[in-house]
Amino acid sequence: VYDDLEPKIHQRITEAVADAVPVLDIACGDGRLTGLIASGFGCKTYGVDISVSHLAEAWEKAKARGISHLVLLTAGDAQKLCFLDESFGSLIMLYSLHEIQRLPQALEEARRVLRPGGKFIVVDPIKGGKAETLWNENYYGLAEIESMLTRAGFSELTSDFLYDDIVFVSAKKVPIY
Q1: How far apart, in Å, are the Cα atoms of 64 and each of 57, 58, 115, 165?
Q2: How do residues 93-129 score in pLDDT, each as one tens digit?
Q3: Would 114 disulfide with which of 65, 79, 118, 122, CB 3.0-4.6 Å?
């Protein structure tokens, strides 16, 4: 259903993170976006996913594209990331926000690994949209997403709809003094 939209969504994400590397793709799945960023920017790009089979697929794609030296993949849980504090200039969660069981904890972890001033990009279908009907999953409304990000310590939120039921939210980690 959303495959036709993917190139535009990927372009929007890559434009948003272009000046904020290195990038961590949280719940990177098969690594399409991770590889696109690595090849587009020529920089090391990190992907983490709980599924080892998805990571194996991501690794094969990176090797086939000749970018395996730029793509660093690790098995892990968004709720307990295995990276040092303030390691990344930007974080991405594409179509994965609704998949995470303990989302407040995952958002706190995201904030922990993001550098001050870093960007956090979230793209997800919203509650009441086509995805909810098609896949029988629970999604969040835009106000819920913004509220959770704010509670996790993110600020300077901007959001808009890429399509009728897909939201693009950008947030920043502002230093706490």
Answers
A1: 11, 10, 31, 33
A2: 999 999 998 999 999 999 999 999 999 999 999 997 8
A3: 118
Segment 138-164, tens digit of pLDDT? 899 999 999 999 999 999 999 999 888
Q: Which residue type occupies 147?
A: S
Residue that the structure tokens 């599924």 belong to = 51
Residue that has been written with the tokens 């609704």 in this structure:
98
Q: Is the pTM of this model over 0.85?
A: yes
For 131-176, the DSSP string reads HHHHH------HHHHHHHHHHTTEEEEEEEEEETTEEEEEEEEPPP
- Going 4 to 99 to 70 to 170, the CA torsion angle's sign is positive
CB 110 within 8 A of CB 79: no
Please state, in angstroms and rounded to a whole number, the distance separating the CA atoms of residues 136 and 149: 24
Beta-bridge partners for 125: 166
* CATH no. for 3-172: 3.40.50.150
Chain-centroid distance, C-alpha 55: 15
